[in-house]
Automatic annotation (TrEMBL):
Belongs to the SEC6 family. Gene3D superfamilies: Exocyst complex component Sec6, C-terminal domain (1.10.357.70). InterPro entries: EXOC3/Sec6, EXOC3/Sec6_C. Residues 16-48 are annotated as: Disordered. It comes from Pagothenia borchgrevinki. Pfam families: Sec6 (PF06046). This is Tumor necrosis factor alpha-induced protein 2. Residues 30-40 have a biased composition (Polar residues).
Length: 630
């Protein structure tokens, strides 16, 4: 049955066209500007040609959906508002049924247009604009009837807004279930990886279409970009949950986590989408419980891989040592690949895990067992090397020093790789390893230098030739300490200079030499000062950079030279300020060398330490705590 078109002519107000987007405006009727003469010669008045009649079917055919909807609303108003309701039902039943049929035809076409929203060409968006406006008109009409004290037509409320939403949801699900075929080769991807990739690509392309074209067909208050993003988020989330529940091998689990934590956020962060879509309320693609389970499984696997490789690297190094092989050399220095290999491994694992998990703090969990799996095992290996003292042990320890330095630098500079407690524990182990390595390398030298050490602080010591014997011994024995990298050798020489200086001060404070008068004290001053300069000069040549050690001997020499008690107190105050670990015993032992000082003078001088307030631009150092005095 054809719809009733009587009275439809000129149903639109003049100069008004329904719709949001640009479209071809209906042309106003042509105006006849020609004049013809009447029999009396006077011109005829101008006449407008009648507007063409647009039937309802033509409106549907031309996708004038909002105009068609407005027409039906006007007919509805006439039937159910202008006429009495009983009259409408009794005498206009045929018109009511026709109106219902027309509404059904319009609804079907509106939903069909909405279902094609994401595959419309640019010049076809006007139809979508009209369909959206038809939905809005229906929603407004539903609201009007809700406010009226009158029984509405059977189709009210029409619920077209809900139909709109459900239609777009169906559209999104269909496109995500059947994504477009990619043009690139996916041979290297597993089936699961290919499915996730295709869904993600479809999501990105469709959201770009929404913000690039579809958005213009909607009023701002409908917030269509965020509506679509929510639909796609929910649909992709449901698919990924199903995939995760199916059970995943490691590489598929990693791929899924990267989509959740890296690739998907990157899509939403694209400038075109970020400016239109609020991604905050969307949240994660997977429920928290499921996501945590997958992340825990991933972290456990990564920790296992890290531990396995670390053990293999250390095992290979131990095997080389057991076989009696020498470490590799580079530029004349012993070199071990242990630190470099493990550092690269740790950095790679944590960096990639940060992307997979989307959180650097979670990624740090990979290294939570590093102090036990790596440092304790490495320390145990070094202890065995030192304890067994094989022919190649010293070479391995020299190579280890560089590894210890590399590990320490990473722990101090690349803090993002470790939790703070792990970092501190590892640094503590490395400090012990470095000290034990230095002790192992230096102890034989000290043993061989004992005859020269015994002459320090004695009467013979005041003769320069005796101290030169010590310098010659250090220079000769120090040749055996070559073989570490330059930076490690400098630290080793600095440690040796400190230990020799400690030995020097310890021997001096034993009090075997008695300085009875000013002349002897001046002689001791010159000797200590000269010894300090020569000793430091030698160690600088050997690579040490510990300039501060000679200053200690200079200050001790000053105390020996000074004769006035206030001057002695002043120098002791400076000594205590720079080296807070100097004790009353140390000062008393030093002052006892000056036998012309009374017991009361020594007591007055040592009391100076009790009144010191440490405050200096130079950080205080620890030295005297290493000097044992009785």
């Amino acid at each position: 049955m054809r719809s009733d078109t009587r009275g439809i002519r000129n149903f639109l107000p003049r100069k008004k066209w329904f719709g949001f987007g640009p479209r071809d405006q209906p042309q106003p009727p042509a105006v006849n500007n020609n004049t013809s003469s009447l029999t009396d010669g006077s011109p005829l008045p101008q006449q407008e040609e009648p507007r063409p009649v647009i039937t309802y079917e033509q409106m549907l055919q031309e996708k004038l959906l909002s105009e068609a909807g407005q027409l039906l609303i006007e007919k509805e108003e006439r039937l159910f508002r202008e006429l009495k309701q009983s009259d409408a039902l009794t005498h206009h039943e045929e018109q009511v049924n026709q109106l219902k049929a027309d509404r059904k035809a319009l609804q079907d076409l509106v939903l069909q247009t909405l279902g094609q929203s994401l595959c419309l060409e640019e010049d076809s968006l006007a139809g979508l604009t009209s369909a959206v406006k038809a939905v809005m008109q229906e929603e407004d009409q539903d609201l009007l009837w809700k406010q009226r004290d009158q029984t509405p037509p059977s189709w009210r409320p029409s619920g077209w807004r809900k139909l709109h939403d459900s239609t777009l949801l169906s559209l999104v699900k269909e496109r995500m279930e059947n994504p477009s075929t990619p043009s690139v080769c996916q041979i290297k991807l597993t089936t699961i990886q290919a499915d996730i990739t295709n869904m993600g690509r479809q999501l990105k392309e469709d959201l770009l279409s929404v913000v690039g074209g579809v958005k213009r067909c909607y009023p701002q208050e409908m917030d269509i970009c965020n509506f679509y993003s929510k639909l796609y988020h929910q649909t992709l989330s449901a698919s990924l949950v199903n995939i995760a529940d199916f059970g995943l091998v490691d590489k598929d689990c990693i791929f899924l986590l990267r989509w959740v934590n890296e690739y998907y956020p990157e899509i939403l962060a694209k400038p075109q989408l970020h400016s239109e879509i609020d991604s905050g309320p969307l949240g994660k693609l997977l429920p928290e419980k499921l996501l945590k389970s997958l992340e825990d499984e991933y972290l456990s696997n990564q920790q296992g891989e890290l531990t396995t490789i670390i053990r293999r690297v250390l095992g290979e190094e131990r095997e080389k040592w057991n076989k009696g092989e020498e470490p590799e050399t580079e530029d004349g220095c012993f070199f071990s690949p242990v630190a470099y290999d493990i550092i690269q491994l740790i950095n790679g694992k944590v960096t990639s895990s940060t992307k997979v998990l989307g959180d650097p703090h979670k990624a740090q969990r990979i290294t939570c067992h590093i102090s036990k799996d790596l440092m304790d095992s490495y320390k145990s290996f070094q202890s065995d090397v030192i304890k067994q003292n094989k022919a190649n042990s010293r070479s391995f320890i020299k190579a280890n020093l560089d590894c210890i330095k590399q590990f320490s630098e990473v722990l101090n500079k690349e803090r993002h790789l470790f939790t703070e407690d792990v970092r501190k524990n590892c640094l503590h182990v490395l400090t012990d390893m470095k000290q034990s390595a230095h002790t192992y390398l230096l102890q034989p030298l000290h043993e061989r230098l004992k005859p020269q050490y015994r002459k320090l602080g004695t009467s013979d010591w005041l003769h320069q030739s005796k101290f030169n014997e010590l310098l010659d011994g250090i220079n000769k024995e120090g040749q055996d300490l070559q073989g570490s990298t330059e930076s490690c050798h400098k630290e080793l020489m600095g440690q040796l200079e400190q230990e020799v200086t400690v030995e020097y001060v310890s021997r001096l404070l034993k009090g075997k030499v008695k300085l009875k008068d000013k002349k002897q004290q001046l002689k001791a001053y010159l000797t200590v000062k000269d010894n300090a300069e020569n000793l430091h000069h030698l160690f600088v040549q050997m690579g040490s950079e510990e300039d501060w050690l000679k200053e200690i001997l200079f200050k001790i020499a000053e105390v020996l030279k000074l004769q006035e008690l206030p001057a002695i107190q002043m120098e002791l105050a400076l000594l205590g300020t720079h080296y807070p670990d100097v004790s009353e015993k140390h000062v008393l032992a030093l002052l006892k060398l000056k036998t012309d000082l009374t017991k009361a003078d020594r007591k007055t001088a040592t009391d100076t330490l009790l009144t010191l307030e440490i405050g200096s631009n130079t950080p205080p150092r620890s030295f005297f705590s290493l000097v044992q005095v009785k």
